Amino acid sequence: KAGFGLGFSERRISIDLSEAAGPVGGTSDSEAVFTYELLAAMAYELGIGWDAILSYRFLTMAEFGPTDDVSLHLFEVGLGKNF
Q1: Strands 50-61 and 22-47, how do they pair?
Q2: Which pairing describes strands 50-61 and 70-81: parallel, antiparallel, or unpaired?
Q3: What is the reported pLDDT for 54?
Q4: What angle do CA 43, 49, 53 make, to 5 degrees?
Q5: With contact defined as beta carbons under 8 Å apart, do 10 and 38 qualify?
Q6: Per-residue DSSP letters for 11-52?
Q7: What b/e string do you get for 24-54 counting C-beta neighbours within 10 Å, with b at 16 or more?
Q8: Distance in angstroms (rounded) separating the CA atoms of residues 37 and 60
């Protein structure tokens, strides 16, 4: 199985600064950013209705404000039952 997705996501940045004497200040901002994902997965049938699953998903969001882009690598190992 393979997949590809495009979309927009709400990305928020919150910065709170504090010292021992008390809070110094902070800021918060949010914006809709472009995002996409790639998926690759495979399954092996173990028996009647049982599957072993191995998958990888890559997600990324565009840079926003003072931050760089965000990239996530997700790995999944699973056991599934088909009814």
Answers
A1: antiparallel
A2: antiparallel
A3: 95
A4: 20
A5: no
A6: EEEEEEEEETTEEEEEEEEEEEEEEEEEEEEEEEEEETTEEE
A7: eeeeeeeeebebeeebeeeeeeeeeeeeeee
A8: 6
CA dist., res. 10 & res. 12, Å (int) = 7
pTM above 0.85, yes or no: no
Tens digit of each residue's pLDDT (9 = 90 or more) over 12-52: 877 777 766 666 666 777 788 888 999 999 999 998 889 99
Asked if residues 4 and 39 have their Cβ atoms less than 8 Å apart, the reply is yes
- Block residue for tokens 């690598």: 73
- Tokens coding 73: 């690598």
Nearest residue to 33 via CA among 77, 1, 67, 2: 67
